[in-house]
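Issue 218. Parser rejects a valid record. Input:
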Amino acid sequence: MSLPDAPRISVAMSIYNGEQFLAPAIESILAQTFGDFELLALDDGSTDATPSLLRDYAARDPRVRPIIRENRGLIASLNQMLQEARAPIIARMDADDICLPERFERQYAFLMANPAFAVVGAQADDMDEEGNHTPCFGPMHPTTFEDFLATIDSGAHLMCHPVAMFRRDVVLAVGGYHAAFRHCEDLDLWLRLASVTKLCSLPDKLIHYRHYAGQVSSRHATEQQTGAAIARLAYHERLAGRPDPTEHLDRLPPIDGLDMLFGREGISRQVREKVALGLRYSKAGMRDSGFDLLLRHVADGGNRDGLWRTVARLVRFGEPMRAMRLAAALATT
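Output the parser choked on:
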């Protein structure tokens, strides 16, 4: 099979030590009914068999373009693939998920028929580490731009990143992925794009999305939730016609520094409360620095609704000492 000079889609897949799930992820790309693509498979300094797997696939299918280099992190990898892509349309993909065969065909057709939209996602069918399908109880990702805008402040997920397809030039025009929003770089990007273009998701389930203990959302729950809260604040600054204070940051400040960053009092406390209460149901969050945020929230006299239930939840999470500390804080403040 020979490649055209410029494929219509560039698939952007960053991999770090992904050999466990990599083969079925790549196979699902190569099996797409829409075949005019290149697969940019960037190995971000893996220490497992990922590089050799990528070279094997490249030898079998010229659409696979391996990029093997040292570790620089996901955001640097995504921005590098944006620069190296030869196609005007980018399809995101993670190395642990599986695309349905008609994913590219349906999303590409939508973008061609709807020039006002620069980003289209799809619904996800959840699966566990072994590939068994699991129930999904959350709401659908918004299927119209109006619903997308209405969902921003609800805290619900706006779009599933590994099944997003977007116009490369529009994403580059807003600066690509911002380094400060590590672990929530997609949310920040969607919110910046919402000011200049339209976004939505198809109602179809076009990806099997894998959930397991080692993924980013499980390992960095508190940092992810904190970044998401700040991204929404920055969105409202732009909406109000004020400068975005996060625009040129390489790293977000600690929560206590947000009053200074946004130039007014109360922002730090607002974010701390939102993140602390949002993490009450997260085992990972209650086992990392999210628990300290919750204690600080209680000490500051914040909203305590449901926090005695959180004490019981901590016991179920296997954290009896933290349950006792929270109970003591609730009883004495």
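Fixed in the parser; the record now loads. The chain has a mean pLDDT of 93.
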